Sequence to fold (339 residues):
Amino acid sequence: MATIIDVAQQAGVSVKTVSRVLNNESNVREKTAERVRAAMKALDYTPSTAARELRSGRSRSIGMLFSDPSSGFQARLHHAALTACSDAGYFLAAGIFDETAENWRRQLAEFLARTRVDNMVLVPPLCDSDDLLQELVDHEVATVLISPSHAPEGAHVVRMDDYGAAREITDHLLALGHTRLGHLTGPKGHVASADRERGFLDAIRADGRAQVREDWIRPGLFRFKEAVAAAESMLGGVDRPTAIFAANDETAAAVCFAAGRMGLRVPDDLSVAGFDDAPIATTVWPPLTTIAQPFDAMAEAMVTLIGETPLQGEARWCGKTLTLPHALRPRASTSAPAS
Fold:
């Protein structure tokens, strides 16, 4: 049985355009409408009741695509988005999306057709996919990018200052008296990981008391298992750092786990700091010193920006970029180094 996606592909238009033809809307060129009707006839397509009920105005639904919904960052942002959408009278439709798959365009088209959203939020790393954004623009979907590496045309951007936050938490460790600092990075190519590493390095260089040790900068990859191995390698000898800043809370928790397994006490023998203020930051012992991402403010901002975005063709609009403040959360996982 043919679907609205098949009709759109046959006619060479977006799913939204097919929906407008089905609803007899006036803002579709006659030649385009004829092409759509010809495709429906060729495919013997019978429009569903849901397709007929598509409204002409911007919907009160927002789509949100995740590549790894289990990560602390994405889980916290998802929860904040659910709350913000509920408060503003929106419905949130979330989905798992694999952009590396050959059929990713069909994945996207099916998600849009199934949920009928014309608003979308993309979180890292999907927020940095220019191809995915262009596909959403082609489908006339208003899009908000959370913490992308750049601010492309055709989308709003909501972000925080990862570089400045990393400098601040590294300065906190330096102010406690640490001069032997290690760092677990995130994945290569991930903009937040790069900004956090750069902030860490610049804080050390600006302080002047400590030196950058390349063998104390190891990949944690934002994942617990890999971070445990990296931390054990860094802490295995007598010559080891007295403090480690991990690029997210999951890998900071892994450092605490590795330290405990090696007989090191946190923070007496090793101070540990993370990033994000994910749920794990306050469920491990001791609770993690970390940077609190403004999850609630990000979610509220994305809903506000979507509400301000005019319908495609109604008016010209330019994407806005909002940089929201973070907060340092000092907790029991950091203290002055042992003499």
User: Anything to note?
Assistant: The longest strand covers residues 61-66. The chain has three domains: 4-52, 61-160+295-325, 162-293. The two ends are 74 Å apart (CA to CA). Confidence is low (pLDDT under 50) at residues 48-56.
